[in-house]
User: What shape does this take?
Amino acid sequence: MNKTMKSVPGDPEKLPGACACRSGLSTRREFLSAGTCCLTVALASYGTHIDAAHVLFVTGAQAAGGAGAEVSYPLPAEDGISIDQENEVILVRSERRIFAFAVSCPHENTALRWRRKDFRFQCPRHAATYAVDGSYQSGRVTRNMDRFAIRLDGQKVVVNLAALYRSDQQKSEWESASIAL
Assistant: This one.
């Protein structure tokens, strides 16, 4: 299913329900959705350091077909970061490459943040840091951000939600999980 992307307003105070702390989240999906909301607001308020970057988020229906489905996004025209809250995907275009990551830190599943001034992702829980390509830089984590398998289909980026690769267990798949433009 094709996704529609919208720019995130720059003032997180004006976002309805932005980063409202929620207690009693009963499922992992609810927890990650709330965390993704906070990540979206953080990205919007910090902006990005990627040249001509935009922070985007995706709204609308979930991927067609349920578990194991693929979801498609318009091919980004320029460098930037997009977030699909429903499917828990971060889509990055940087330096003529596209990557799709899980929104959560591989250490303890905390929603990652984009640190514009440092040009990296960071886990707010234990300060683990990752480069824009998802590679581990520092902190408690012992591996890179998890990448989804992706492919180009015309002017769409297709992400396979059933194929999430860990760099420590599926090194060759993780390394090839990107699109060169």
User: Anything to note?
Assistant: Confidence is low (pLDDT under 50) at residues 1-25, 41-65.
